[in-house]
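ping. complex inputs:
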Amino acid sequence: MPQEVTVLCFGPARQAAGTSRFLFEVPSAGIRSSELVAALAQARPRLRPTLQVSRFLLNGEVIGPCARRVRPGDEFAIHPPYGGG
Amino acid sequence: MMSAVRLSPRRLSYWAALAELGGPALGGVVLFAGRVRPDRVPGGRVVALDYDAHVGPALRRLEEIASIARRRYGARRVVLWHRVGRVQVGEVSVIAGAACGHRAQAFAAARYLIDELKATVPLWKTVRARPARRPRPPLRRGRARSAD
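pong. complex structure:
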């Protein structure tokens, strides 16, 4: 069983992370999304400013203000402010 | 026929968009096209923009926006296309268009489409700039000196 989540990075998050995706280890029971964001900021300090202004998607769905459980095998996307057009 | 919403690495065509908005009963057609400008930026001058999208959620959101434009403004036909990848200065990066019975609805629908796209669709751009050329220093007139 995978013990990691796939973190997807877009726009400024991709530039800060230096990659469009990476695997991040989480407990087998999962972790709250707010805790995951804090852990990402600690593990990758260059991502911290972007994380502070981003919204997040879990398996393609926007996560609201309530913390959600992120489990191994999930896909967690970092969406910095949008810039289309 | 092209779909109402689209993310494409290929050039966007005004004429294809207009064809998509056709229909004899549609008296008001508004087509907005956004192009990449050669703006001055700290690194020089913009030569291109690289667009990145979270494709699945972006397409879903584009469909939602198109659906709302149909319902709220009575748009019978809608076009909402965006480029992905590198877009050179002067090329079209986005097209938002609506065909309605009358002009007021068509303007409102097109405005809604482009504003919602910019605010709510997961797309990002990275500026590609070329350093501005410095003016050459004037040639010095005078005697040439030998090296020794």
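Residues 4-74 of chain A form a domain with the Ubiquitin-like (UB roll) fold (CATH 3.10.20).
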